[in-house]
Design brief:
Layout lengths: L5 E10 L3 E9 L5 E9 L2 E6 L5 E9 L4 E5 L2 E3 L6 H13 L1 E12 L10 E11 L11 E6 H9 L6 H13 L3
Parallel strand pairs: 4-9
Antiparallel strand pairs: 1-2, 2-3, 4-7, 5-6, 5-10, 8-9
Helix pairs in contact: 2-3
Length: 178
């Protein structure tokens, strides 16, 4: 079949709390074979909370692989079998203390489809109300409010580097006419 590959063998080489990795051999459409190392992940959700004044809430947190602080929309990983809409609402509340009355699905993105099975589901939250932030014990972050128009500039100039955040900001700006 054109543009298809068939898995001939798959060996799990790593199992951790967040993902597993398999070392696969795949048959190509021309009959040849190729090695495919795959990171298997349950997926994640991100939510872009937008105020009535078209400001958004971002979280600033340290990202270990890059030894740097990033600015991102609130997000989290899905537990196996968890509904992504509910996961997004939970993460929004945990990280920012926000709940919302409007919750719009923005679609999904594949962060690194060459070797990672993760799907990130994106939501836009409006009609925000605030209660208490409830971070996980190993979670440390700051919340900042930024005009959505400024956030678009930060995406375009490379200041905001996180892929899910870039896409969520640009989609929200397009939907809201900014």
């Amino acid at each position: 079949m054109h543009l298809q590959e068939k898995t001939l063998s798959s060996d799990q080489v790593y199992k951790g709390p967040i993902f597993t990795i398999t070392h696969d051999v795949a048959e190509l459409e021309n009959g040849g074979t190729a090695v495919r190392d795959v990171l298997h992940h349950n997926g994640g959700v991100c939510v872009i909370p937008v105020t009535e004044n078209n400001e958004i809430y971002l979280v600033k947190q340290f990202r270990y692989p890059f030894a740097a602080v990033t600015r991102e929309v609130p997000a989290g990983k899905l537990e196996k079998g968890e509904d992504h809409a509910e996961c997004g609402r939970r993460e929004l509340l945990e990280e920012t203390g926000c709940t919302c009355t409007e919750y719009t699905y923005l679609g999904e993105m594949l962060p690194t489809p060459a070797y990672n099975s993760e799907i990130t589901y994106m939501y836009l939250a409006r009609g925000l109300s605030f209660s208490k932030q409830s971070l996980d014990p190993d979670e440390f972050l700051d919340v900042e409010k930024v005009p959505l128009s400024e956030a678009v500039k930060l995406v375009m100039d490379g200041t905001i580097r996180d892929g899910k955040t870039q896409i969520a900001i640009l989609k929200a700006a397009r939907i809201l006419g900014i």
